[in-house]
Amino acid sequence: MNTHYDDATIEFYSTKALIYAATAREGVSPYLQRFLALLSPGACILELGCGGGLEAEFMMASGFDVHATDGVPEIAAEAEKRLGVRVEVLRFDQLSADSRFDAVYAAASLLHVPVNSLASVLSKIHCALKPGGKHFASYKSGGADGRDTFGRYFNYLSREQAERQYLIAAPWSRLVIEEMTGGGFDGVQGPWLTVLAEKRLD
Questions:
Q1: Cα pseudo-dihedral 18, 22, 25, 26, rounded to 10
Q2: Are the beta carbons of 8 and 153 closer than 8 angstroms?
Q3: CDD domains annotated for this entry (predicted)?
Q4: Domains: count for the chain
């Protein structure tokens, strides 16, 4: 495992890009719609780990200025086919923007960041946000990191771990963590967390 990402996980998405993009769920998450309702019309959104581009497509159609990215070139290429625009190949640890985005959206993507590197990535996200900017992320939960049946690495954060990582990363003005049940590519239902964080205005 690399310090900031897991090679086996990237290899999985690289070799399964066509299947992964083709089996993306139909319809966007209600959490996305709730998040977008918090933003101003036309807000500039960075999406980290856009996958096949389903939710980026929805955000664009809703009038938002979306910068879609994915850390796997093959996945980014599939998203480009759907969106008709360039999708930047960007690993989370490569993020270097400074106060550029109104929002950073990362659904079911940061859950692949090794636990010891997560605070560093979250700090980069905080830096990329404009003052008052908002961040959403969702994570498979569990409390101990590990791998699924496909060999993909997950940090499987508990609620307490998630709160600790976010507070270590940056001085957010708002941090809301909710627990839920959901599934994934493996078809297994289990515990998830959603995180809504907001950067201070000052």
A1: 150
A2: yes
A3: AdoMet_MTases
A4: 1
Residues 139, 110 contacting (CB under 8 angstroms) = yes
Question: Is 2 within a domain?
Answer: no
Q: What are the helix (H) ranges across the chain?
A: 7-15, 17-22, 30-36, 54-61, 73-83, 115-128, 159-169
What is the extent of the structural domain holding 191?
Answer: 7-198
CATH code where residue 11 lies: 3.40.50.150
Q: How confident is the model at residue 30 (pLDDT cuts 50, 70, 90)?
A: confident
Tokens of 96: 């270097």
Higher pLDDT, 178 or 23: 178
pTM for the model: 0.95
Q: Which of 97 and 5 is assigned the larger pLDDT?
A: 97
